[in-house]
């Protein structure tokens, strides 16, 4: 074999992965094409400052079932995340279209905090998580999907929920339908008149 042939033999051959989609090999795959809606920005407002386009402004104008609203307060409300990090992932939003925590009124701050506390109690009662992640992403650079309308994340956590799927497959297994989660949380919310 010539030195030129030896060099050619040692070069890796690049293959386009799209040519092998669905071809069996030794790699397990979990296909999640539904996540492309989130990745591609579906349902994201073209103009984030337009309250008419904002999903957190539009949600309260719809029925609780259609919008996935769990609870409506006076200045803020709780809604399920349409693209949850974990099963039962809630968002607490002021009705007012504000982007920064410092723009909230004292009344809004108090109600966002109280709805967050109540959401934690309800989620514990219904789903028995081992813990929670709470937080607000302020601005797109901080990870806010809808940066123009403030929202607090209430994410229930269980031991083992951070398994290989999100890390390797960039996929999250959510074992319950959003409509079922909304119904269970709304029924368990204090003051809803349940027995």
Automatic annotation (TrEMBL):
Positions of the catalytic residues: 151
GO molecular function: catalytic activity; nucleotide binding
Presence of the UniProt keyword Calcium in the record: no
Region (Disordered): 1-26
Superkingdom of source: Bacteria
PROSITE patterns: HIT_2
Domain HIT: 55-164
Motif (Histidine triad motif): 149-153
Cytoplasm keyword on record: no
Alphabetically ordered keywords of this record: Nucleotide-binding
PANTHER family assigned: AP-4-A PHOSPHORYLASE, HIT FAMILY HYDROLASE
Originating species: Candidatus Brachybacterium intestinipullorum
Annotated protein name in UniProt: HIT domain-containing protein
SUPFAM superfamilies in the record: HIT-like
Phylogenetic lineage: Bacteria, Bacillati, Actinomycetota, Actinomycetes, Micrococcales
Pfam family, one: HIT
InterPro entries associated with the record: AP-4-A_phosphorylase (IPR052908), FHIT (IPR039383), HIT-like (IPR011146), HIT-like_sf (IPR036265)
Positions contributing to substrate binding: 81, 153
């Amino acid at each position: 074999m010539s030195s030129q042939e030896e060099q050619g033999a040692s070069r890796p051959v690049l293959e386009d992965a799209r040519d092998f989609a669905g071809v069996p090999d030794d790699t397990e795959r979990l296909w999640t094409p539904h996540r492309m809606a989130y990745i591609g920005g579906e349902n994201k407002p073209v103009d984030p400052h337009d309250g008419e386009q904002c999903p957190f402004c539009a949600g309260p104008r719809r029925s609780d079932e259609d919008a996935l609203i769990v609870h409506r307060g006076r200045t803020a409300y709780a809604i399920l995340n349409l693209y949850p990090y974990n099963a039962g992932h809630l968002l607490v939003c002021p009705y007012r279209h504000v982007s920064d925590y410092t723009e909230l009124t004292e009344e809004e701050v108090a109600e966002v905090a109280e709805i967050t506390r109540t959401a934690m109690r309800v989620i514990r009662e219904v789903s028995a998580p081992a813990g929670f992640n709470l937080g607000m992403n302020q601005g797109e650079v901080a990870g806010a999907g809808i940066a123009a309308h403030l929202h607090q994340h209430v994410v229930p956590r269980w031991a083992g929920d951070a398994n290989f799927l999100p890390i390797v497959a960039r996929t999250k297994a959510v074992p319950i339908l959003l409509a079922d989660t909304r119904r269970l949380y709304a029924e368990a919310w204090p003051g809803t008149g349940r027995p």
